[in-house]
Specification:
Layout: E1 2-5, H1 10-24, E2 30-33, H2 48-51, E3 61-63, H3 67-70, H4 73-76, E4 86-88, H5 92-95, E5 104-107, H6 116-126, E6 142-147, H7 151-155, H8 163-173, E7 179-184, H9 187-194, E8 201-203, H10 208-217, E9 220-222, H11 227-234, E10 242-246, E11 248-250, E12 253-254, E13 262-265
């Protein structure tokens, strides 16, 4: 059995779930531990059930609380030892090489140590589970922009996608008569960024589900540094897509993995 501790919003939860799928390898059951989700300042709930059919694979994937997960043992004792059952961010990349035939406990965000090969495998594992929602896109001459405000601004994480980033991304996408649609959790902040750019834009999306699938439905995308827009693009339709994305997750944390058809902009 693979037990993974869920934390954070949807994007982080997908990273954690994908890491568990990688280790389960279609052979071990998965337990999603949600016991710590209410402990953080930003309260979250398990969003995975809204987006993924957990009955797709021939194994049990269920939500339950685990004493070991609650004690954060996998975070505290993430040792680089062959067949070690506690997997955290510190030994995630190292332990990818091994197959386990025992109980595994996972606690981390599983982004920093994720290799491109492992990430591509995660996308392959997740796509068949996705409960895809179809939202209409006006035409191919529309580009979707995701901008994250709220806590990203408060924490200073928006500095990796300043106004200059969006201006450069828009310039890159602005071929012909391209219009822009914006998905955001903070429309006032987005207006401050885009109002004097001289572009035609409108806000779209109204819920976490609609926002997620809208991002993946457009062939032209400009992403923020959030894991939400990252996974929306990774699991979207990438046949002929053009995806502009920032080089960093947050300040001083450069992203090592690449999205399909990604054009990466670095603002530092």
């Amino acid at each position: 059995m693979v037990t993974v501790r869920l934390a954070g919003g949807l994007g982080n939860q997908i990273f954690q779930f994908a890491a568990a799928l990688l280790y389960a390898n279609g052979e071990q059951d998965i337990v999603l531990d949600t016991s710590g989700m209410s402990r953080y300042e930003s309260k979250h709930t398990n969003e995975l059930m809204k987006f993924f059919d957990l009955s797709h694979y021939n194994m049990s994937i269920r939500e339950a609380n685990s004493y070991i997960a609650k004690m954060r043992l996998a975070k505290l004792f993430a040792f680089k030892i062959v067949d070690w059952p506690l997997i955290g961010d510190k030994n995630f990349e190292f332990s990818e090489e091994f197959e386990y035939h025992q109980n595994i406990f996972m606690d981390g965000y599983f982004q920093e140590g994720l290799t491109q090969q492992a990430f591509d495998k995660e996308v392959e594992l997740l796509k068949p589970l996705l409960i895809r929602k179809n939202f209409a896109v006006e035409s191919a001459d529309v580009c979707i922009i995701h901008i994250r405000g709220g806590d990203f601004v408060r924490l200073g994480w928006n500095t990796v996608t300043p106004k200059e980033y969006y201006q450069a991304a828009i310039t890159h996408m602005q071929t012909g008569n391209v219009k822009f649609h914006i998905v955001t959790d903070d429309r006032e902040y987005a207006k401050n960024v885009f109002d004097d750019m001289g572009i035609e834009y409108k806000f779209v999306g109204s819920s976490i589900i609609e926002d997620f699938f809208l991002i993946g439905a457009y062939s032209k995308r400009i992403l923020s540094s959030s894991t939400f827009s990252f996974w929306a693009s990774a699991l979207g339709n990438n046949v002929g897509s053009a995806v502009v994305a920032p080089s960093y997750w947050i300040p001083e944390r450069k992203r090592k993995i690449f999205l399909p058809n990604e054009i990466r902009l670095e603002m530092f």
